[in-house]
Design brief:
The chain is built from 11 helices and 12 strands. It is α/β, with parallel strands linked by helices.
């Protein structure tokens, strides 16, 4: 089973890339699939590669995957649907799966395009693995027993299966599979930064998730109600150390939905692990949040 996970090319629609950082969610999916025996898995960021329709089609024809997975937020949906259309034109028998905040919030709209076979709702590691295993089972006639997916049945009806529980133990997940990513990590510029106002931030920058979900229930938030779960401070710092040694990373950007609580729940443990593993970062890590928040507060007063 050959699996290709792609970040859809916004460049194909607008002529301007939006991929400032690696597609962390796809890298987590790839790592989980690899851990469970799907070794022929790749992550290709078609936006970072600035691929247009012809280039995307050539990529699919070259790779010839059995499964193409793609995801993104709501603003990525036009590019996602276009990539799915190209996939079905190039490889009609390929299974196309969509996920991420955009498809999760509008699964039927995405499926009614008739170019996406399944939408994975919410966190995708367990669901995508089960879906791919089901795809391999030639005797299977229904997918209704797979939690956390949406699809259109043979009668044209929209099917939303039972919600899948969130992954409780985040430390059990493998680290993002940066070794499966094209282009390489160092080709990403990082999120736009005002270097004069934030002199502590140096490149290269890498993104890390230290938690998932959010403890708040803001009525205006598109993410909805998600259970807040945290990785252990030691695991987060071990990951930071790995990237520092392997890629020469100088700045870590936490992509958590709730940043402030992340720094309070295990700050003392976190700081101690940093001092032990990367002592040259310790002073910056203990001082940057306060100084950064102070500057933000001044700008928004």
């Amino acid at each position: 089973m050959k699996i290709l996970l792609i970040n859809p090319s916004i460049y194909n629609d607008t002529g301007k890339r939006r991929a400032a950082s690696p597609p962390l969610s796809l890298l987590y999916l790839a790592a989980y699939l690899e851990k469970n025996g799907y070794l022929d898995t790749k992550v290709i960021d078609t936006d970072a590669l600035e691929l247009k329709s012809q280039g995307i089609s050539e990529l699919f024809l070259k790779e010839k995957p059995d499964v193409i997975g793609m995801g993104g937020a709501a603003f990525v949906l036009p590019a996602l649907v276009k990539a799915a259309q190209i996939a079905k034109q190039a490889l009609p028998n390929c299974l196309v799966v969509a996920g991420g905040f955009g498809p999760t919030n509008e699964p039927e709209k995405v499926l009614r395009t008739k170019v996406v076979d399944f939408v994975v709702m919410g966190e995708g590691e367990l669901t995508l693995l089960e879906l791919i295993k089901a795809r391999e089972d030639k005797q299977r006639k229904t997918f209704n027993d797979i939690n956390g997916i949406a699809f259109i049945d043979k009668d044209g009806g929209f099917v939303l299966t039972q919600k899948r529980d969130n992954i409780k133990d985040l430390d059990s997940l493998p680290l993002p599979a940066f070794h499966l990513l094209t282009p390489g990590f160092l080709t990403y510029p990082g999120q736009p930064i005002n270097a004069k106002k934030m002199p502590e931030i140096k490149k290269p920058i890498i993104t890390i998730l230290a938690s998932r979900g959010c403890p708040h229930r803001c009525v205006f938030c598109s993410l909805g109600s998600k259970v807040y779960r945290q990785r252990s401070p030691k695991k987060v710092v071990d990951e930071m150390e790995l990237y520092k040694n392997k890629y020469g990373v100088k700045t870590v950007a936490l992509y958590d939905d709730e940043f402030v609580r992340e720094w309070t729940y295990g700050f003392e443990q976190f700081s101690e692990h940093v001092k032990d593993k990367t002592p040259e970062w310790a002073e910056k890590i203990t001082t940057v949040p306060a100084s950064a928040l102070e500057r933000i507060a001044k700008e928004y007063r």
